[in-house]
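Researcher: I'm preparing a figure for a lab meeting and need a structural model of a single chain. I don't have an experimental structure, so a prediction will have to do for now. The sequence is pasted below. Please return the structure as tokens so I can convert it later.
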Amino acid sequence: MKKLNRILIAILLPLMCACETDTTSFEIVVKGGEYFPEDAEVVITRRRLDSLRKLETLVKEKFTNGVVSYKGKVENIHSVSFSVRSASNGKSGSPIILMALEPGTTEITFSSKNDYTFKGGKYSEMI
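Model: Understood. Here is the structure written out token by token.
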């Protein structure tokens, strides 16, 4: 009887965990803040649907120990622009990177102000 209980637990536990998986959570991790000024911040924006000229700021976070990590929820996948800017004058310190805001973890690692690697995100890697 104990063996049957263990088998049932071994089968049911993974199924229960799979049912609780959240498919709308995303995380964006940016590494390499040491290549930017102290006041640098990560800014992620998207074009508003009512006007292509208006931008909506989704994320505006400063580096902590060279890293920015931002978590949130996303209902629909959409295209966003990512850059690192100076908080004092708003000038971009990195290239503007187009990416998809989508469930899962997306990691951007800078090895200089203009050189970066991009990992994660099925749609972001396509862009």
